[in-house]
Design a protein that fits this description.
The chain has 573 residues and is mainly β. It has a single domain, classed as TolB, C-terminal domain (Neuraminidase, 6 Propeller). The chain contains 11 helices and 30 strands. The protein binds MU-OXO-diiron and calcium ion (3 copies).
Length: 573
């Protein structure tokens, strides 16, 4: 397709409907409006509770601290470390619903617990004991929890699959970096834990992918620490972010020689089998180490598996991984499709073309800098710079539409001074959404791209929003957008639906004060949409008490919303 010129983009926002139809955007609408619901109007004052379209309703589900077993420890604030390991974690983020019944009314919810600030989680500015650090560690990671719908209501239920995975859960490594010296420590060579689990993915073989994002914030030191260039590129510093795990757990002390390589064990995509309670989560090193946002999986025409991944930091890159062979064949041979394949990084060129550059030792520029493939993967950011990847405005979620378009939110970049074709706003306060279509059904090394929308162009209008983050392209041509950042009129973060055919945007839901709206997944029939209210009020009961009714006292809790159209229709319609 013709790339929409920057000027058109800035003036018109969404690309023209005609441009979409020529590419055969899959739609069942037959010209009908994909978005039929009455949108939530722009509020005049920020609300303390969620506001949803009058055509929809929501219920709350699995708030932080929900016991995994019906007779498990009930929620108390702050939780003990032992209790927290048996309860739903904090910081609800990316998630996926795996149906376990024919009718889709029962299933496993796999959900990430990205982070919880000390004040919210512990009621303290910083942990002062190892027990408190353990509480914090056990609140991070992921949960697998069975849920069931009775009538129109969902609730969590007992299941042998229910489990918590957290910062101390035993992990396995696989792929090119497994067993490499870069992952070895003098002390404690059993890899443990996942945290900073942001967005996610799911595979055609029924597993869940949880992606480690801001892992650097959990490492720190009390003595002076001068990061080398590579450590600095990965954000490791003595400052940390106030979690203070390092003060009580030497694994997280950057100056402890016994745990010299501990930080190399994070920043990966982790595969979890939601059905096998006893399986170790597996860190898939072939997918590279960076601040992974999500992993959007597609299947190429010959059954090779493709994964698109953003790295959420200013001026970092977008990647894709392509498996070596047909995924069914590889699995039948006892291999994981994620253990053998090629990692590519994206270069967006002027004129709407782009190139996926392989990050391998066959590139002489990489061979000159790295000693082996494991090193390239562990320091993928450095490799991306060497091969000339395009620095982006904070790539957040990616989503693959069934018609082949891959959408990616670029949330904002206050530090952008010079624009390029793919990042056309400087400074980029409100973000944009880019999309591309690879040659050869996700398998090719070239692609065509355009800007799907620029948030600035909508900001002052009725459907205004900023900082797009969570994203889902549904099978009909709708693009669901979740926000994390400053919104017009001081509005809380929100969930909107865009029609990729017409450019229409409508607001479905507004969250509560100081929350992020994130983590969308649906039932297979798309009559229930699950979405997360992350860090409501950042834990401040003066801002909100959600999901409890407003009382000014109760500590708010991260929770999931189950949203349905009151008439039982497809969500987003
Ligand atoms: Fe975890 Fe980039 O949001
Ligand atoms: Ca987040
Ligand atoms: Ca996010
Ligand atoms: Ca964000």
């Amino acid at each position: 397709m013709q790339r929409i010129s920057r000027r058109t983009v800035l003036k018109g926002g969404l690309a023209m409907a005609a441009a979409f139809t020529t590419h055969g955007c899959a739609t069942t609408s037959g010209g009908r409006d994909l978005i039929g619901f009455r949108p939530v109007p722009k509020p005049t004052i920020p609300a303390r509770m969620p506001i949803i379209s009058p055509d929809y309703e929501y219920q709350t589900l699995i708030p932080w601290g929900t016991p995994l077993a019906p007779n498990g420890p009930p929620y108390n604030h702050p939780p003990t470390a032992a209790d927290q390991a048996l309860q739903v974690g904090i910081g609800h983020d990316g998630m996926a619903f795996f149906s376990t019944s024919e009718d889709g009314k029962q299933g496993l919810l796999a959900i990430n617990h990205e982070f919880g600030r000390n004040r919210h989680l512990l009621g303290l500015d910083a942990p002062t004991t190892l027990a408190q650090v353990r509480t914090s560690q056990h609140a991070h990671g992921a949960s697998i929890i069975a849920i069931k719908k009775t009538g129109d209501r969902w609730e969590s239920i007992a299941s042998p699959a229910n489990r918590r995975i957290h910062a101390n859960t035993p992990m396995s490594f696989s792929g090119p970096v497994a067993g490499h010296a870069l992952l070895k420590n003098q002390a404690d060579n059993t890899p443990k834990g996942t945290f900073a689990n942001c967005s996610n993915g799911r595979t055609p073989w029924g597993t869940y992918l949880t992606c480690e994002e801001n892992f650097n914030l959990y490492f720190s030191t009390s003595s002076s620490f001068a990061p080398d260039a590579v450590q600095a590129r990965y954000g490791l510093s003595a400052r940390g972010a106030g979690y203070d795990w390092h003060k009580h757990d030497p694994r997280f002390d950057l100056n402890n020689p016994a745990f010299k390589n501990e930080s190399h064990r994070f920043g990966w995509v982790v595969e979890i089998d939601p059905n096998d309670h006893s399986s170790n989560p597996i860190k898939r090193t072939a997918l590279g180490r960076f601040k992974h946002e999500g992993a959007a999986v597609a299947e190429g025409r010959d059954g090779r598996i493709v994964t698109y991944m953003g790295d959420d930091q200013r001026f970092e890159f977008i990647y894709k991984f392509v498996s070596k062979d047909n995924w069914q064949k590889m699995r039948a041979n006892g291999q994981s499709p994620f253990d053998d394949g090629t990692l590519y990084v994206a270069r967006f060129d002027d004129g709407g073309s782009g190139e996926w550059i392989p990050l391998t030792m066959s590139d002489p520029r990489l061979k000159a800098r790295f000693s082996d493939q494991a090193e390239i993967l562990t320091f993928a950011r450095i490799a991306g710079t060497i091969v000339g990847a395009t620095p982006m405005d904070r790539s957040e979620w990616t989503s693959v539409a069934p018609n082949g378009w891959v959408y990616c939110t670029l949330t904002n970049n206050s530090r952008r001074e010079t624009t390029d074709a793919a990042n056309p706003v400087a400074p980029n306060r409100n973000g944009h959404i880019i999309r591309w279509r690879d040659s050869d059904d996700h398998l090719g090394t070239s692609f065509r791209w355009d800007i799907f929308l620029v948030a600035d162009n909508h900001y002052e209008s009725e459907e205004g929003f900023g900082s797009p983050d969570g994203l889902w392209a549904d099978p009909d041509g709708r693009v669901f957008i979740m926000t994390d950042g400053q919104q017009p009129n001081g509005m809380n973060n929100q969930l909107l639906v865009a029609d990729s055919m017409t450019g229409k945007i409508a607001r479905l839901l507004i969250g509560v004060p100081a929350c992020e709206v994130t983590g969308l997944t649906t039932t297979p029939d798309r009559t229930t949409l699950f979405v997360n209210i992350q860090h409501p009020g950042y834990g401040d009961p003066m801002l909100t008490n959600f999901p409890a009714p407003s009382d000014g006292v109760t500590v708010p809790r991260d929770c999931t919303l189950a949203i349905r159209r009151i008439d039982g229709g497809i969500v987003g319609s």
